[in-house]
Structures are given as C-alpha cells and as structure tokens.
From TrEMBL, chains A, B:
<protein>
    <recommendedName>
        <fullName>D-lactate dehydrogenase (cytochrome)</fullName>
        <ecNumber>1.1.2.4</ecNumber>
    </recommendedName>
</protein>
<keyword id="KW-0496">Mitochondrion</keyword>
<dbReference type="Pfam" id="PF02913">
    <property type="entry name" value="FAD-oxidase_C"/>
</dbReference>
<dbReference type="InterPro" id="IPR036318">
    <property type="entry name" value="FAD-bd_PCMH-like_sf"/>
</dbReference>
<keyword id="KW-0274">FAD</keyword>
<keyword id="KW-0809">Transit peptide</keyword>
<dbReference type="GO" id="GO:0004458">
    <property type="term" value="F:D-lactate dehydrogenase (cytochrome) activity"/>
</dbReference>
<comment type="similarity">
    <text>Belongs to the FAD-binding oxidoreductase/transferase type 4 family.</text>
</comment>
<dbReference type="GO" id="GO:0071949">
    <property type="term" value="F:FAD binding"/>
</dbReference>
<feature type="domain" description="FAD-binding PCMH-type">
    <location>
        <begin position="1"/>
        <end position="81"/>
    </location>
</feature>
<dbReference type="InterPro" id="IPR016166">
    <property type="entry name" value="FAD-bd_PCMH"/>
</dbReference>
<dbReference type="GO" id="GO:0005739">
    <property type="term" value="C:mitochondrion"/>
</dbReference>
<dbReference type="InterPro" id="IPR016169">
    <property type="entry name" value="FAD-bd_PCMH_sub2"/>
</dbReference>
<keyword id="KW-0285">Flavoprotein</keyword>
<keyword id="KW-0560">Oxidoreductase</keyword>
<dbReference type="Pfam" id="PF01565">
    <property type="entry name" value="FAD_binding_4"/>
</dbReference>
<dbReference type="InterPro" id="IPR004113">
    <property type="entry name" value="FAD-bd_oxidored_4_C"/>
</dbReference>
Amino acid sequence: GPGATIGGMCATRCSGSLAVRYGTMRDNVINLQAVLPDGDVVKTGSRARKSAAGYDLTRLIIGSEGTLGVITEVTLRLQKLPSHSVVAMCNFQTVKDAADVAIATMHSGIQVSRVELLDEVQIRAINMANGKSLPEVPTLMFEFIGTEAYALEQTLLVQKIAAEHHGSDFVFVEEPNAKEELWKIRKEALWAGFAMKPDHEAMITDVCVPLSRLAECISVSKQLLDASPLTCLVIAHAGDGNFHTIILFDPTQEEERREAERLNHFMVHTALSMEGTCTGEHGVGTGKMKYLEKELGMESLRTMKRIKAALDPNNIMNPGKLIPPHVCI
Amino acid sequence: GPGATIGGMCATRCSGSLAVRYGTMRDNVINLQAVLPDGDVVKTGSRARKSAAGYDLTRLIIGSEGTLGVITEVTLRLQKLPSHSVVAMCNFQTVKDAADVAIATMHSGIQVSRVELLDEVQIRAINMANGKSLPEVPTLMFEFIGTEAYALEQTLLVQKIAAEHHGSDFVFVEEPNAKEELWKIRKEALWAGFAMKPDHEAMITDVCVPLSRLAECISVSKQLLDASPLTCLVIAHAGDGNFHTIILFDPTQEEERREAERLNHFMVHTALSMEGTCTGEHGVGTGKMKYLEKELGMESLRTMKRIKAALDPNNIMNPGKLIPPHVCI
C-alpha cells in the first residue's frame, strides 16, 4: 500500500488527533536541523514563533519524506494543556448525518479540539476486539477544551446540532478516567480492525477533501465499500475533511489485493474530483506517486524535481520516492 | 529601511492583527497559483485544508518576495466570524509589566484572539493625532472571542493576571461601536506616529523573539530607545513575541539616519542573541539581507540560493533581493 518514509511520517503524524484546534503537527514545528546530501548541516529557522526571514526551508523539508535530507533536530511550539476538557460521543443512522454534524460544528465557529467519525464497521470491530457493546452505527467522538464553563457550553451547543441531524444517545464525560476510557475506543480503532481478520493486511486510504464536500465524499465511498466483498472500516478526522478507510485483504489472494486497490483508486479519484488530495497526512512514498500529476499538474511536479536535483544532484536521499519517475526537469 | 516586495508583503501581512488565534495569514493559505520564471503556471495544492502530497510549494513561494515567481491566485482557508467578542485595555507602569502580562496570558492557555502592546510614546502620538487624552503609559489591548459567556470569562481571567502585574484602569467593551472605537486606537497607531513628525521618515523594526524572552527584549531595547535623541514608538504583537519600533528620523540629516540604523542594528542583534529573528513578518528585501547569515547560517543561505538558481537560472525574478550577494552555491 501507499507508504511514506519514516522521515515523512514523523513530521506529518499526529495531525489527526489534535488537528482542529492546534493545527497539524507540521504547523507546530518552528525550526529544524537537517543534514543535506552534501553534508551541510542546515538550521531552518530561529526559536521565534513566526518569521519572514527567507525561504521557508522548515516547511520544505517537512513532508519531503527524506528525499532532501535527514532531520536531526526539531524545535516545536509548545501548547499549554487546557484547564478542562470534555469528551462526547453521539450515534447516527447514516455516515452522512454524522459527517453533516462534523461540518456544521466546524462551520458554527465552535472551537472543537477533536472530532472523529467512526462508521458502523469500525464500531463492530471495537466491540469484537474489546468486548464492548456499543451500538453498531456511525458514531462521532468529540473533545472540547477550555475553561470548565466553556467546554460544557460547547458540548451543549454540539448536542443541539447533533439532535438536528438525527443524532441519538449523546453522552459526555468530564472525569479523567472516564475520558481516557472513551478515547481508548478511538485510539485502539486500527488494532481492533486488524483483530477482525488476523491474517489480513490493511490498505489504509488517506484522502482529504474541502470540509464542505466531506459528507458527499464519505457517502459515495461508503456505497462502494459496503458493496465490496472486503471488510472496510471508515475512520475520519472529520473536522479536517480527512478520512481513512482500513481495507482488510488477504495478501495471499491476488484478487483481494486488486479489489483493495480498486477501492483505493476510486476513493482517491472521488476526492480529486472534489478538489481534494490523495493524502491528507500519510505522504506519497511510492504508492501515491501515480496520483500527483492529476492532483497538482506536471508543472508542479517539475518544480519539485528541480528542487530535488538542485539539493541532491546524485540522488542519494531516499531515491525513487515522492517524485514520479516520468517527471522531466 | 528594510522593505520586502509587494509579493512578499502580501503573503506575510495581516499576521499581526489576527495572529494569535488563527495563526498568521500564511497559515491560512492552502493553495497558490504562480507563474514561474520559465513561464510554467504551477498550482501548489488542492482545496483540502491539509495535505502531504509532495513538497510544500505553497509555503516555499509565500515569503519568497517575488524571487521565485509571481503569485496569481491564492486560496484561503476561511474562518467563521466569532459569535461574540470583547475588546479590553489596561495600563501599566513599565513596558516590562505589560509584556509580562502578555506572556502570562499566553502561557495560561487562554485563547486570546489579539494582544497588542503600545508604549507611552505611541500613546502620546495617538493623543496628539486624534485629540484623545489616554494616560501616556505602556498599554495593552486585547480581543477575546467565542461565545458571550466565554469571551467575558476570559476577559475576567486576564483582568486578574493584569492586576497581579500592577495593571490599572482595566476597561472592556462589548458594544460593536465601542469596540470599533477602541481598536481604532491600535489601527491608526502608525499614522499617529507619522503625524508627530510630519517631515520625518520612519524606520520600522520587526524583530520577533521566543515569547518567554519578549519582556527582556523590549526592556533592553526600550532603555536604548529612551536614551536616543530620536522619537521612537514601540508597538508589539505581544502574543507572538513580535514587536515593531517606529523610529522617526529626518531624512535630510545623515546623522539621524545613522542613529536610526544604529538603533535598528542593536535591536536585531539583541533579538538574535535571544534566538529570535530579524523579521517576524515584514520580510528581508535588501535591508535585512545582512542579518541572515547570523540568524540562519551560511548552509541555510546556500540552500536558498540553490533553490533560487534551480527555479530561476537567469535571475529574472526580483533579482538582488532576499539572498545576500556573497552567498555561493
């Protein structure tokens, strides 16, 4: 499946869980030290939280997946832990309703800290793996942060939005152990998926679309997934318009791999037709190279290759990754 | 004085006024269309709010000050207007107290939308220009946003922090006209400064330091500014650790220009010694080129020049700007 290098992964990871309020992890990197192909050690910034001092080499190297150099030091912008937080959960009849609530919440201006969507297959996996008995329906999980009064106020506002979209069983918790217990559902989702089919591999998709198109994109994808013989679990960082499908397939069965690829292709093309991206956070690696021309155009890829050639003329840094081989300078 | 190109300015401007809550303007740019030196028209992203699809050309071009291409289209991430806001103002005996309150507010985890520091000279300029009678002392201005209850809750928390640092005359307003009237003070600050010395020019500094060093940086700078024969006004985007000094000088007097440059140099070097940057938002242009090696190192500048040479081999895009002439590939 699509896979980025460790370098790329490090720098783009964690974007899901804290994405909405604090931005992605890359937004919180203010300086890097990196070793370039010629042995130069570069420092890309200062410790100031904003700067206009020259080209933004920090962001150029983040997400370059090891093709421009090796990151040896990272300076992060720290965030104060919120004084209070609330974790909430709500059930829906359809993924479209759930996605619509995520969109409406973001559009309402509520500063939600996390909003995660899990489809009914994902919930079934969690029930099976962890001996739970959650209703096996599309589910939203939220985190609200701030002062105690504000976190509660936001919770009640979202409860109202959920009710307007056929949401049911809205629950929220404030006690630390209860919050941890609830978030565990989300955190163990991937492993619960694997537990469903122990000998299977997972192809994990990573499309991201403009928030206003998320409900449509998930709905269209879900129709296809439900009709497939493969087991597919949807888990979305809904506040970002980013969603993952965990497509489980038997690696010894060539036709199952082909089916997984067909589903992945379909979702990527659906996302691109909605002006989205083939990868919201996992990166390009080799698996997503084939989609970049459609997403960004040949001029953009040529520009990337010119930068790669200028900084790594001997192509010694993670060769063959990120830039499709047919791109000419 | 230091001046970036229009391209660079556009992309880095507005970072002050909405910096804290929503990030700088550059953080809200999700896609660019740009014409490169060879005539290629590149699209740097999709309309998804996050992406890991290849090198971040969006951020590379933002802040490149027209040296890599001409931006012809910008896609912004929109933000919902807050349902409620409060504008507050508070006086202090010293700029250090004022800066300490800005720092303590940010460190407290309060999601302040704006926090601006004006020194007593800046307030005097505003009184003179606009016929006001504000106390001529270091002053902080805040904006808090959210729900009505939350904006008020934050206001009261900051009022408490201010009181702990000798703050006085804490006032806040919620009525739209009153808020506009109060923000006008900040918005017209630069013009009020010019009005003080109509035939003078202004050299505007733009250092930015780690937030924890802001009070020290402003205090040290202020001692120097107060001892100078020139009129100097301090205005800081304090939540970012970014502060501007408007140094007024008579352009017909060479020694005044030299004095202005001396003050600017001192502040830049003070900021750099605190791991800050010579420019938080205004850019490099030609005036700040001389500081970049100290701030970022020659390896970093060489990398920038390699990128410039790869994308603009004939050096036709804003030549002579941003990268110091002595940098060799």
